[in-house]
Recover the amino acids of this structure.
């Protein structure tokens, strides 16, 4: 399983692997807010939180 980010750019909304990689148990208890990463699809620097992340 890979921890993915859903791009917060409303014109993109594609998924890409997060630079944060946790197992599912750690992810449940982790606090993840305001992480910045460049989207691999639209090349925009986005800020994302836990709610923008999912396992794929
Ligand atoms: Zn994007």
């Amino acid at each position: 399983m890979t921890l993915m980010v859903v791009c917060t750019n409303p014109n993109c909304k594609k998924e890409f692997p997060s630079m944060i990689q946790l197992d599912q148990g750690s992810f449940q208890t982790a606090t993840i807010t305001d992480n910045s990463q460049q989207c691999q699809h639209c090349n925009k620097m986005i800020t994302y939180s836990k709610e923008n992340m999912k396992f794929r």
